[in-house]
Amino acid sequence: DAGVTQSPTHLIKTRGQQVTLRCSPKSGHDTVSWYQQALGQGPQFIFQYYEEEERQRGNFPDRFSGHQFPNYSSELNVNALLLGDSALYLCASSAYRDGADTQYFGPGTRLTVL
Amino acid sequence: AQRVTQPEKLLSVFKGAPVELKCNYSYSGSPELFWYVQYSRQRLQLLLRHISRESIKGFTADLNKGETSFHLKKPFAQEEDSAMYYCALRKAAGNKLTFGGGTRVLVKP
Q: What is the DSSP-derived secondary structure letter of residue A72?
C-alpha cells in the first residue's frame, strides 16, 4: 500500500486561474480531509469528505470546493487564485468506521501562485 | 472555537539532553490531543495520541486538563529526533484536526 498519494507534486499558476489537486486515500479508508499549510505555519483544515459529501468545512471561502468519487479519491478545486493561496496542500485519509480514526497524510502538493 | 498554541518556534538541544515541547490548547469540552512529527523530506505522521497513553520513540505526553496543556517530553534526545513537531486537537473522532504552529527541534551532536 503506497499510503495516501497526491498529484501533482508541484504546481505553478497565475492569479485568477483555477487549479485542481488530487488525492487517493490509503487502502481501506473512506474519509478524506484537506488542509492548507502556509509557509512557517501549521496545517489549517479546509474541508472533509465522506460518502461523497462535504461533512465539515473550515474557514475558507467558496472559491475552495471539492469532490469525492465513489472510489473514495478526492479533488480540491480553487478558483480565482490569489497570491495568498500559495501553500502546501495536504490530503489526509481515515476510516470513519474505525474508532481510532487516525488521519494519515499524503506528501502534499506545493502550489505557487504568481 | 478551539485553538492550539506552541510557544516555541525552535528548540535546540544537545544529544542526550532532555527536551520538552510545549503545547497549550483552548477548548471548552474534552478534546483528543495528538502530536504529529515531520522528519526532513517525509510526510506528516502521527507520533502519539493522549488516549493511548503510550511512549513512542521515547516520547511521552501527558494531558493536563487543569492547565489545558499537552506537553511532549523525551528524557534523552537523539539526533534522529530533529524534526518539525505539531500539536493537534480534535473535538471527537471523525472531526477535523486543529494544529498549532509547530516547533522545530534541532538536536546537536
A: S
The residue among A6, A9, A31, A102 with the most chain B CBs within 10 A of its CB, best to mutate, is A102
Q: Scan for cell 469532490, then name that residue.
A: A67
> Do residues A109 and A89 touch, judged by C-beta distance below 8 A?
yes
Query: pLDDT tens digits, residue range A15-61?
Result: 999 999 999 999 989 999 999 999 999 999 999 999 999 999 999 99
For A75-108, write each residue's pLDDT tens digit. Answer: 999 999 999 999 999 999 998 766 557 899 999 9
Distance, in Å, from the CA atom of B44 to the CA atom of B85, rounded to the nearest integer, reads 9
Rounded to whole angstroms, the Cα distance separating B44 from A92 reads: 10
Interface of A with B (CB under 8 A): 3-4, 31, 33, 35, 40-45, 48, 50, 56, 58, 90, 92, 94, 96, 99-108
Helix, strand, coil: what percent of chain B each, to 5? 5, 50, 45
Q: Are strands B98-99 and B69-74 parallel, antiparallel or unpaired?
A: unpaired
Q: In this complex, do B4 and A42 lie within 8 Å of one another by their Cβ atoms?
A: yes
